[in-house]
Design goal:
The protein has eleven helices and two strands. With about 240 residues, the chain is an all-alpha fold. The longest helix is centred in the middle third of the chain and has 21 residues.
């Protein structure tokens, strides 16, 4: 995204003085985050609803931001925007129980097939393990692509607590918990490395390069719905690999 002209926006101790200019300058950031999150959400969620919620989060960030805390506004605003979108999803009860159940079935089938075959199973092998046809399995992936991994901090019940207040160093960090986190991180990295090539490429394009559905589909030569299927399958594989962590 083009750099923001900081001279246009005045920062004060009580937030940003020109809220209208702030909304105009950072609207592309809201749209980018919304389209990024859509890959992890079911078809029932509309991107326009996410953008609307994100704009509310941006306005909240503009009201709360204090430049003296030393954080870049874009970093702070990104967390507020994502938080507002997640609040909208929670209030809409966006993840039906049946979707969670379907993802658990897929994860279990992947785990069983992998143990039986001694390798990462192909889509047809996963479908066979589930006792359904390949098109039925791909449809199940399409319908289940909302049950995805989210950042841990996104689901904390923070109330009015500021993001940077939540992550200030207090000298009381538990080294054991930090070690566990590092082990999980290492296991996740290894799990991604073990994904089939196309799924590994997809995860890299989405999570490292911030590419959206359309952009990833163009690289892989498939449609957006197929990208959703592959993403759901990659996440299910990772969940199966990391079930002991």
């Amino acid at each position: 995204m083009p750099s923001v002209n900081r001279q246009k926006i005045m920062y004060t101790a009580t937030g940003i003085s020109d809220k209208e200019q702030c909304l105009k300058e950072f609207a592309p950031l809201v749209k980018r985050i919304a389209h990024f999150m859509m890959l992890k959400l079911p078809n029932s969620v509309q991107v326009d609803d996410m953008i609307q919620a994100g704009m509310i989060g941006l306005l909240d960030a503009a009201s709360r931001y204090d430049e003296l805390r030393g954080a870049q506004f874009e970093t702070y605003a990104s967390q507020r925007i994502r938080g507002a979108m997640l609040d909208e999803l929670r209030s809409a009860d966006w993840l039906p129980r049946s979707m969670r159940s379907d993802m658990r079935k897929i994860e279990g089938a992947i785990n069983r097939a992998q143990q039986r075959l001694g390798k990462s199973p192909a889509e047809s092998e996963i479908a066979r393990e589930l006792g359904i046809t390949l098109p039925e399995y791909q449809q199940l992936l399409q319908e289940s692509h909302g049950a995805q991994l989210m950042y841990y901090e996104d689901f904390h019940n923070t109330g009015e607590e500021d993001f940077f207040e939540r992550f200030e160093t207090d000298g009381k960090s538990n080294p054991l918990e930090m070690l566990k986190d590092e082990r999980f991180r290492a296991a996740l990295i290894q799990g991604i490395e073990n994904l089939p090539e196309r799924e590994r490429m997809l995860m890299g394009m989405h999570y490292e390069q911030d590419m959206n559905l359309r952009e990833i589909g163009a690289v892989l030569g498939v449609g957006e719905s197929r990208v959703c299927q592959l993403h759901s399958q990659a996440v299910a594989r990772l969940r199966a690999m990391l079930e002991d962590h």
